[in-house]
TrEMBL record:
Family the UniProt entry places it in: Belongs to the dihydroorotate dehydrogenase family. Type 2 subfamily.
Name the UniProt record assigns to this protein: Dihydroorotate dehydrogenase (quinone), mitochondrial
KW Transport (keyword) present: no
UniProt gene name: URA9
Any one biological process term the GO annotation gives: pyrimidine ribonucleotide biosynthetic process
Naturally occurring in which organism (per UniProt): Aspergillus nanangensis
Record InterPro entries: Aldolase_TIM, DHO_dehydrogenase, Dihydroorotate_DH_2, Dihydroorotate_DH_cat, Dihydroorotate_DH_CS
Keywords, alphabetical: Flavoprotein, FMN, Membrane, Oxidoreductase, Transmembrane, Transmembrane helix
Pfam families documented for this protein: DHO_dh (PF01180)
EC number: 1.3.5.2
Primary location: membrane
Amino acid sequence: MAVNTINLVLRSVGPRTRAVPSLRYTTQRVSVFHRPLVASNSMTLRYSSDKASEPTQVAKEVPKKAGRGFKRTVLGTSLAIAMLVGYIYATDTRASIHRYGVVPLVRLIYPDAEDAHHVGVDALKMLYKYGLHPRERGNQDGDNALATEVFGYTLSNPIGISGGLDKHAEIPDPLFGIGAAVVEVGGTTPLPQEGNPRPRVFRLPSQRAMINRYGLNSKGADHMAAVLDQRVRDYAYANGFGDHEEAKQLVLNGEAGVPPGSLLPGKLLAVQVAKNKATPDGDLEAIKRDYVYCVDRLAQYADILVVNVSSPNTPGLRDLQATAPLTAILKAVVGAAKNVDRKTKPFVMVKVSPDEDADEQVSGICAAVWGSGVDGIIVGNTTNRRPEPLPQGFQLPPKEQNTLKETGGYSGPQLFDRTVALVGRYRTLLDQGPPAPESTKESAETAEETESPARKVLFASGGITNGEQARAALDAGASVAMMYTGVVYGGIGTVTRVKQEMRDQQKS
């Protein structure tokens, strides 16, 4: 009875009571509980040792994390330095990659020379927009070793870029940036015209020469005027003059202290103008209107206006180099230039053909220059002739022999000797002064006007590719040596290289 009563009590108290050891199993239970206690102590010791080891593990991990951070810092810094060095190198005109890497690569990727031209212009335009364009570094003209006087301006150097490289005035500033003191944009025509059908530009790599028959492709004078107008407005705003018409006019009137065309000290912008292909060759009045239209829209943005009467790819254009029509056209251009709404008026030059080299032709052009009041001559342009290959006796590859048969104007080093000779002849004739008037009466009327005429300026353009040739052109009587094909084959660093060669000549 007593046992039953105990069992009933145990059931009622539940599991907790079962954990209470009976007196029967006290010794056993103590030994059993002792083992877990020991186990518990060992576990406690193990946990304690784990906790004690934690600082050691942290100490081991800290250098590892610090090492990874240091490596990342070194890698990031190295990458930044590499990018900076690469940027400085790639944007320096002295970098050989422009001549020996970029030029061959472009020729390989773009077999059509006109495609390569467009890609080059677009690339320079985009790179300039983001400040990544190639440029001269270190103020290389700062020693004034190559400084020269032109039209009353002191130019930083006597090297220029001929018209045709920047046909639509898209990249004058990048071209100034590569070191040229004179950049000629255009030619432009009054109305847009497509030019001749493609293909129309051909390379002769063995001669570093080209043949082109672009035909004065142009977006028109209004388009070029809009581009140049925006350029002046951007300059006015960037230099604190404001963003309004008066600000633009202040810059054009010289208030910024820079030439109104180039917008850069020591540099000049030339704008080349021409007639439309559709304008009748025999209608002199219509031809004059073409040139005057271009002048009226573009003169205010130019330091020099260049009258192109010598492109071999516009039918009838070279006929305008005869004395009578040339004088009439140049008088019209000079008159329009004098009416430009600007304090200083642009100077006017005429671009003549190297093929018009007979004595009567040269003297007739000089007479037209004196008779019209034009300020100078650019000698010359591309030639319809096909010069002998260089060096003498060299046989052109079959492909280039076929290319030589293409219609168009030839440009390249082979023109250099003729250019220098022609510059010398023009210099001699122009320095003799204006031709004597036909009658004493005319002499009396013009005596005051021609009493002390300003010396006419000559630019040399044709075949110039190195410093020695540029110096020879200047010694022959030119004030500026201009390049085009030499830049195409020599790359964006050509102007810098030519100037350095000229400096080296001076030192030797």
